[in-house]
Amino acid sequence: MASTTKARLAIIDDYFGLAQQHFDRINGIQIDTYSETLDPLTSSGLDALVKRLEPYQIISSMRERTPFPAELLKRLPNLKLLLNASGRNNSIDMQCASSQGIIVTGTKGDRPTDSQALQALPDLPPPKGHSSVVQHTWAMLLALCSRLAEDDRTLKTQAKIWQTGLMVPIAGKVLGIVGLGKLGIGVAKIGVLAWGMDVVAWSENLTEEKADAAAESAGLPKGSFKSVTKEELFQRSDVVSLHNVLSARSKGIVGVQELSWMKKSAILVNTSRGPLIDEQALIAALKEGGIGGAALDVFWEEPLSPDSQWRSVDEWAKSGVLLSPHMGYVNAGTMHRWYQEQAENVKRWLKGEEVSNRMN
Q1: What is the DSSP code (8-state) at residue 192?
Q2: pTM for the model
Q3: Where does the D-isomer specific 2-hydroxyacid dehydrogenase NAD-binding domain start and stop, copy by copy (predicted)?
Q4: Cis peptide bond N-terminal to 303, omega within 30
C-alpha cells in the first residue's frame, strides 16, 4: 500500500486491552479500539457495526467474537485487510471477502524463533504440544466434580454452613471423547495417565486404526483409545468431552437422543463451540436432572446477554452446572503472540509485501 495518508485500523473485541501496544510500534496508521462486541447477525447489530467499522482499511479481530458474514463485508467498502486470530475462522465469509478484494490473515500462535520478537512478548504461549484449552477442560471438569465453585461461594457467603454435598471421583471411570483431534487427544492422554480412565472416542470418520495412531502420537500404547459408535460412547461414558470443529455437519451433534443415552450421573463438558449441542435439549436435561452435570465454556450466544437463561442456571437446574466465559484459549502468551503476528502483517501490507498466514 503506497499512500501518504495514514491507514485507519480498528481493534475490536480486545477485552483486556492487549492489542494496541503491538500496533503502536507501527508508523503510518491511526488506531481506534472498540471493546464492546456487536452482533452482525441481528439487523440492529449489523447497522451499528457498519457505522462503527465503515471508515477503516484494517480491522483487527479476535477469533469468532465478531462474525464477518457477507452482509457485513459488502457494507465495508474501505476494508482491505482483515486480521484474524488463530488459523481457522468459519464465521468469516471467505468467498465474499475475496470478491470484495479483502485480504484475510490468520495467526499461528507459536512461540517466535526470532529473538527480537521473543523479547517483545510480555508472556509466552504454551510450548508446542500443549494447549491451554486442554488445561481449561480439565480445570472445569475437576472443579465441577469437586464442587469447588459451590463450596467456595458457600464458605464466603454463609457463615454457619460447612459441607453441603459429596464430590465425584473420576479415577478409573470412562472418558468419552467426541472428536479425537489434537485437543481431544490432549484431554484423553491426561485421562489415561493421570486418572487411569478408559477412553472411548467417536467421530464420523474415526476407525480403530486412527484411534491407535492417535494414542501412539501421544506416547501411549495401541488400544489406549477405543473407537466406538456414537451410541456406545454416550451410553458408556461417565464424562463426555466435546472437541469437534463447528461446521454445518457438526452443529447440534449432541441433541435429545444423545442426552437420553447418557447416564444420569454422567457429565458433559464443552470447551469447543456452543452450537455443537442443541441448547434447548441440554436445558431440558439439566432442568430434569437427566444427566449428572455440565461444564460449559462456550455458548450459543457470546457474550451472554444480561437476560440469558444461563445467568440464572442455579435457580432452575437440578443437575450440577459450571460456567466460564469462553476462557479456554484466553491466556496472556497466546493472545499477545496473536496480536504480535497481526502487527507484523500490518507492517508487511503497508510496505506492499506478501502477508503471512493468508486465509483466502
Answers
A1: H
A2: 0.94
A3: 139-328
A4: yes
Per CATH, the number for 132-323 is: 3.40.50.720
User: Given a cut of 60, is residue 144 above it in pLDDT?
Assistant: yes
Check if the beta carbon of residue 267 is closer than 8 Å to that of residue 295.
yes
- Angle between helical axes of 132-145 and 182-195 (0-180°, round to 10): 50
**In whole angstroms, what is the distance from residue 21 CA to residue 203 CA?**
42
Round to whole Å and give the CA distance between 150 and 144: 9
DSSP characters for 227-241?
A: E--HHHHHHH-SEEE
Question: CA–CA separation, 329 vs 131, rounded Å?
Answer: 8
> Can you say how many angstroms the Cα of residue 194 is from the centroid of all Cα atoms in its chain?
24
Residue corresponding to grid cell 454422567 = 266
3-state secondary structure 246-260: CCCCCCCCECHHHHH
Rounded mean pLDDT of 69-94? 96
Distance separating alpha carbons of residues 345 and 268, to the nearest angstrom: 39
Tell me the C-alpha distance between 49 and 31, whole Å: 17
Which CATH architecture is the domain 7-125+332-350 placed in?
Answer: 3-Layer(aba) Sandwich (3.40)
CA–CA gap between residue 341 and residue 16 (Å, rounded) = 17
Q: Is the pLDDT of residue 1 over 90?
A: no
**What are the residue boundaries of the structural domains of the chain, listed by start?**
7-125+332-350, 132-323
Q: Which pLDDT belongs to residue 5?
A: 82
Other C-beta atoms within 10 Å of 214: how many?
Answer: 24
Topology match between the domains 7-125+332-350 and 132-323: yes
Place of cell 465441577: 144
Contact 238, 265 (CB under 8 A): yes
Which residues are bridge partners to 348 per DSSP?
Answer: none
